[in-house]
Design a protein that fits this description.
The protein is α/β, with parallel strands linked by helices. The protein has 23 helices and 19 strands. The strands form five sheets. The protein has a five-stranded antiparallel sheet with strand order 2-1-5-4-3. α13 (about 540-550) links the parallel β15 (about 530-535) and β16. The radius of gyration is 59 Å and the shape is elongated. The protein starts with 7 loop residues before the first helix and ends with a helix.
């Protein structure tokens, strides 16, 4: 109890002194015990070793019974002050020789025993056998005095104790000094705590004396006062805010109540909408059923009624299926299966239905596969068709006539999750406002009631599609821009692909799967002379070839480059728009090779004929490899071109026109006087006339072509002056392909040489000579047109 009421300073002093004294006492005790034990053991070991050495040296003395020698050996112990006596015993145990450090003092010999030592309070006795050739000759015994050893140990302990007392005294002085640094900060904390307690003033702060633990404790005490002061202020403010929080919580409860009521109204509105959607086809079914009972109905009228009833019945069935599906989903009872589903066949079936629907609205519908595809998906085929038809049906529904709907299919490349296939349904429809996108996939919600009334629908398709996709390991997302269109993305897990057969050309496989539909589309082409698309960037060739084909009975459209040709090649409903495409292989933006490959990749089946000014053997193979069905060179051979077209599309009138034109040309050739029309040589300066000078069908075209030659020559000379060889190559190439078609073979030859030199680009003087030669030929053609005789 007395210790408890002492001050902290006194307690610290006592603890330090007692702790230091205890520690010193423990250290001294352990040191003294260790020193005593070690010193005693070292002394014993030393004595034993000396005894064994003397015993070993005494072997000869016992062997030869030489007591004098034994005495000399024992006299070596006179330097050991602690030795009381030593005895050499013979084999029978009799004293052979004796040594004593005090010759006048007789000491009794110790009793013989085993080799080793014996220790008592005063003496240490050691014994060692004297052995020669494994024969024991005797024993050596030595008696040592232990008193000097004990005296030395006592002196060592006394020194340790004195040292301990000095250490304890120094520790006491340090504790007295330290007490001031400990007790004063604590006393200050006590004083400050008393002031705060009596005055309830939390602004008082304790004084800091040091940077040690007591200083940090003072800081923490002051921080505690800060927090108590802040908490007191916070409590006061909280009391003021409590009523406001209660009002806020009340408002939140009221808002939650309103949301619940809104959800209830949404379900009621949904039920009302469903009632309207169901009643609409039911009204038509009942009404047209009543009309069937009218005996005055004709068979045609009855057939119309039956078709109307069937159409509305199918619509009603789809509504009921949607309602059942959403009911199962909301109840958690919807199930799906995962079986091997042929991808391409499934897509062909879905897209054949959607293509018909798109065609009825005048919408261009396309399907594209990007990259290789698995032959089978491990999914639910029924639900896959349902999801795609929902997405495609919505895209067609909300896209006006003249727009497009595209289905893009590809594998997602993500190694951190199971493989997925992605279906992008891209339309150019009305789009969805940004503030309405969040309602798309909510149950019992429709984006816009006005749109629903205009376009129809229950609003269930998207939420059903999204829930089904999630059940099949995927999802549905949307990107849309109002007035531009929407892209709905459906992703599904494909199942393991390790051992799955992959389709390297899924577009071709899709076309084969849709072969029946394609055949039906081809049968619906117009049975006239046929529609042709001429993809040609040269105006001269456009005029010439278009005129030739129109006179053969064809309806011809023009495309200035390959990109335009790809756009015009399809009808709005996704069918080939032309019976044959004549494709120039060198055009700006997109050349004929790439345009043909693109069309073939998109599934375009109609014939494509390559038109090129290159006539090398490898050029035909290059065109055929790109996807062309045949190959025609420039200058255009009219009979040859018409023969190719007639063979590809099988029109008899084409062959007839070709035959008649060949006969006409033969007659013209036989009636023409060769002398009247100079050859197209390059070296003379006579007028240059066209080979078709007497062809009435070509006269107007030749006049128009020659009339543009001055402008062409001027452009060529300007590009030569500016050393713009790339444009020079283009102009030379166009003239090379056109001139021969108008009957100027020499100009074609000169343009070909100019093109070759300009492509090489390393001989400007040679290019200049080629330009000059071409210019002279064009001047002769102009002169020939002016001096050409008429029939």
């Amino acid at each position: 109890m007395t210790y408890r009421i002492r001050s902290i300073g006194t307690k610290v002093l006592l603890l330090l002194v007692l702790t230091c004294a205890g520690a010193v006492f423990l250290v001294v005790t352990i040191l003294a015990w260790h020193t005593l034990t070690t010193f005693k053991q070292n002394t014993i070991n030393h004595m034993l070793l000396e005894t064994q050495m003397l015993a070993s040296n005494s072997t000869a003395a016992l062997s030869f019974d030489d007591k004098e020698s034994a005495g000399e050996i024992l006299s070596a112990l006179k330097h050991e002050k602690d030795v009381l006596g030593a005895w050499v015993f013979d084999a029978q145990g009799n004293i052979f020789k004796h040594y004593c450090n005090q010759p006048d003092h007789h000491r009794e010999a110790p009793p013989l025993g085993q080799d080793g030592y014996t220790l008592d309070d005063r003496t240490l006795g050691t014994q060692a056998s004297i052995v020669h050739d494994s024969e024991k000759l005797g024993t050596l015994a030595i008696l040592f005095d232990m008193k000097p050893t004990y005296q030395r140990l006592a002196r060592m302990i006394l020194v340790a104790v004195n040292t301990s007392l000095v250490v304890i005294g120094l520790a006491t002085l340090a504790a007295i000094r330290l007490r001031r640094f400990v007790s004063q900060p604590i006393a200050e904390l006590v004083k400050t705590a008393d002031q705060v307690s009596h005055n309830n003033d939390y602004s008082i702060r304790a004084k800091r004396f040091s940077n040690d633990e007591l200083g940090r404790m003072t800081d923490q005490f002051n921080i505690m006062l800060d927090r108590i002061q802040e908490r007191d202020q916070t409590i006061s403010a909280a009391q003021d805010q409590l009523e406001q929080r209660v009002r806020q919580r009340t408002a939140e409860l009221e808002q939650a109540t309103r949301r619940a009521e809104a959800a209830s109204r949404a379900k009621s509105a949904f039920l009302a909408n469903m009632s309207h959607e169901i009643r609409t086809p039911m009204t038509a079914i009942i009404g047209f059923s009543d009309m069937l009972l009218d005996p005055e109905q004709t068979n045609s009228d009855k057939l119309d009624c039956i078709q109307t009833i069937r159409r509305n019945g199918q619509h009603l069935l789809s509504i009921i299926n949607d309602i059942l599906d959403i009911s199962k989903i909301e109840a958690g009872r919807m199930t799906v299966e995962k079986i091997e589903t042929p991808l391409v066949d499934t897509m062909a079936h879905v897209c054949s239905l959607m293509r018909m629907r798109a065609g009825e609205k005048g919408i261009n519908f396309k399907v594209d596969y990007l990259g290789s595809m698995p032959k089978f998906l491990r999914t639910d085929p029924t639900r896959l068709k349902q999801m795609l038809m929902n997405l495609l049906g919505n895209a067609i529904k909300f896209t006006d006539s003249g727009g497009s709907v595209r289905l893009l299919i590809q594998l997602e490349d993500q190694s951190d999750r199971p493989p997925r296939i992605r279906f992008d349904v891209i339309d150019t429809g009305i789009g969805i406002p940004k503030n309405k996108l969040s309602h798309l996939f909510q149950s019992f919600k429709q984006v816009d009631q006005a749109m629903t009334r205009k376009y129809g629908g229950t609003g269930l398709g998207l939420i059903i599609t999204k829930r089904l996709a999630q059940m099949l390991g995927g999802d549905v997302n949307v990107k849309s821009q109002e007035g531009i269109g929407s892209t709905f993305t459906l992703t599904l897990e494909t199942g393991p692909l390790e051992n799955m057969e992959m389709l390297t050309d899924p577009n071709e496989a899709y076309c084969q799967a849709s072969e029946a539909c394609q055949r039906s589309q081809e049968e619906e082409r117009p049975p006239s002379g046929g529609r042709l698309l001429l993809a040609e960037d040269g105006p001269d060739n456009q005029r010439l070839i278009r005129s030739l084909l129109q006179k053969a009975g064809f309806d011809v459209d023009l495309a200035d480059n390959g990109r335009i040709a790809c756009e015009k090649a399809w009808t709005k409903d996704g069918r080939p728009a032309y019976d044959v495409i004549l494709m120039d292989m060198q055009m700006p933006e997109l050349d004929g090779y790439e345009a043909t490959r693109l069309l073939r990749d998109e599934g375009y089946k109609s014939p494509i004929v390559a038109l090129t000014a290159h006539a090398m053997a490898g050029d035909r193979d290059k065109c055929i490899e790109a996807g062309c069905d045949d190959y025609a060179t420039k200058p255009i051979d009219r009979a040859k071109l018409l023969e190719i077209i007639g063979r590809l599309i099988g029109f008899e009138q084409v062959a007839e026109v070709t035959k008649q034109r060949s006969q006409s040309e033969e007659a013209t050739s036989s009636n023409t006087q060769p002398a009247a029309f100079p050859s197209s040589g390059k070296d003379d300066e006579s007028p240059l006339w066209s080979e078709y000078a007497n062809d009435p069908d070509m006269r107007e075209l030749v006049v128009e072509f020659v009339g543009e030659l001055p402008n062409r020559v001027s452009q060529i000379q300007n590009h030569l002056t500016n050393q713009n060889l790339s444009e020079l190559v283009v102009l030379a190439h166009q003239l090379k392909g056109a001139a021969g078609g108008y009957g100027y073979g020499s100009i074609t030859d000169a343009a070909r040489e100019l093109e070759k030199c300009a492509k090489a680009g390393n001989d400007l003087e040679g290019i200049k000579q080629q330009v000059n030669g071409l210019s002279r030929l064009c001047e002769r053609a102009i002169q020939g047109l002016q001096t050409q005789p008429t029939e």
